[in-house]
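Good morning,

Attaching, inline, the backbone tokens for the sequence recovery test we're adding to the shared suite. The designed sequence is right after.
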């Protein structure tokens, strides 16, 4: 019997152990959502992040895995194969959350990797290749924008110092936070940045409604749509709200409204495929009775079609410049990830593993971006989705059932075992 279908491997995945670990992780940064749901706020490169990593490291070392970190703080836990010089199979996700995040986005992919590797070891399944579980630094981009810094640097998509000057809302730069983090983890073995895995598999909650609504257990992810992030800065002039005539003002809020209205027209899509979000607005001086002299707002624009992503994204600056009346504008692009398609080596392995376990699969693309996006040029890459309630994510109400997550970990275990012996 092949390693991928061996029943003892599937049976070695523990639903309760995986759930218990997730709930322990959820205590680190626990918050309560507006509806009373238990969520998590665990920003990257914070003491809480480090506490979560130490907990993960303890579980991994108890299991006999070896630990290493690279210069971006990406954390690796390695299960040694029988042929350690062969390229490893990489699996994992991220441990940081959105400021108002849930208990599963990211962390489940890391815990599922650990559960899958633990099952492989406990079931006595030999793997020719090593398996490495990775926790990528700053996937969310919630503290330091953009997201996926760890995976972008690992894949040499961007140089490691690209984001040194990016500051969080408190003015702490990414470089300062990373240096502090690296010295707090100086006792951990170091590894060079980058690598050439044989394959990459990331497990994640779907973050959309399809699997649940259509009654599927496992999503076989076919690819990820493209994303572009911009920051727009409008500079006007502050003035007294009671005395300055409207005709003489350089009101940054009014120009922001003109800009967003024009962008809404640019981004109109009768097919409802395009995603356009203005998610963060900063206003100065931010008082009721002063005209705003500065507005900064973010744009998150996504589409599965590369040409449309390029055409509409490239039109953003001119659309704003044409729409505004009184302010000076700068538009800066800070994230540009083209759509990717996953490799049949991984998607077929995921589908075969799920089918062999009697699970119902759906092939679907990802609307969210993931670190997997940056692994595509490096090695055959794919993802496993499990359903999440009502598709809710980036929200404390995010929820997947223990059994749904266990099914995902079983598919991951079989997929890793198969790829590690290929
Ligand atoms: C990831 O968190 C995303 O915004 O897609
Ligand atoms: Mn995620
Ligand atoms: Mn997320």
């Amino acid at each position: 019997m092949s390693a991928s279908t061996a029943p003892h491997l599937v049976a070695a995945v523990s639903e309760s152990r995986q759930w218990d670990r997730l709930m322990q992780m959820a205590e680190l940064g626990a918050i309560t959502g507006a509806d009373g749901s238990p969520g998590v706020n665990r920003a990257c490169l914070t003491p809480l992040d480090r506490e979560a990593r130490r907990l993960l490291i303890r579980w991994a070392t108890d299991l006999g895995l070896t630990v290493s970190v690279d210069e971006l703080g990406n954390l690796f836990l390695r299960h040694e194969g029988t042929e350690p010089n062969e390229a490893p199979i990489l699996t994992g996700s991220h441990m940081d959350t959105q400021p108002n995040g849930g208990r599963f986005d990211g962390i489940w992919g890391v815990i599922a990797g650990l559960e899958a590797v633990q099952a492989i070891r406990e079931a006595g399944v030999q793997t020719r290749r090593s398996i490495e579980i990775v926790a990528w630094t700053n996937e969310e981009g919630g503290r330091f924008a953009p997201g996926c810094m760890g995976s972008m640097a690992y894949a040499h998509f961007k140089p490691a110092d690209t984001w040194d000057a990016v500051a969080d809302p408190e003015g702490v730069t990414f470089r300062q936070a990373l240096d502090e983090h690296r010295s707090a983890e100086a006792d951990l073995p170091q590894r060079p940045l980058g690598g050439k895995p044989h394959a990459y598999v990331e497990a994640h909650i779907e973050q959309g409604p399809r699997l649940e609504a259509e009654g599927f257990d496992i999503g076989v992810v076919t690819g990820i749509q493209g994303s572009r992030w911009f920051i727009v800065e409008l500079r006007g002039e502050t003035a007294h709200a009671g005395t300055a005539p409207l005709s003489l003002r350089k009101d940054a809020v009014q120009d922001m409204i003109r800009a967003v209205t024009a962008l809404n027209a640019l981004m109109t899509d009768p097919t409802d495929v395009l995603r356009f979000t203005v998610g963060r607005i900063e206003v100065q001086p931010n008082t009721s009775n002063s005209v705003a002299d500065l507005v900064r707002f973010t744009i998150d624009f996504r589409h599965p079609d590369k040409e449309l992503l390029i055409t509409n994204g490239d039109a953003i600056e001119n659309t704003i410049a044409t729409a505004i009346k009184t302010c000076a504008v700068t538009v800066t692009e800070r994230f540009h990830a083209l759509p990717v398609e996953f490799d049949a080596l991984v998607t077929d392995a995921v589908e075969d593993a799920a089918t062999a376990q009697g699970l119902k699969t759906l092939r679907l693309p990802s609307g969210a971006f993931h670190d997997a996006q940056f692994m595509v040029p490096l090695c055959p890459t794919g993802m496993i989705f499990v359903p999440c309630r009502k598709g809710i994510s980036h929200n404390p109400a995010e929820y997947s059932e223990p059994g749904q997550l266990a099914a995902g970990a079983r598919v991951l275990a079989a997929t890793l075992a198969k790829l590690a012996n290929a």
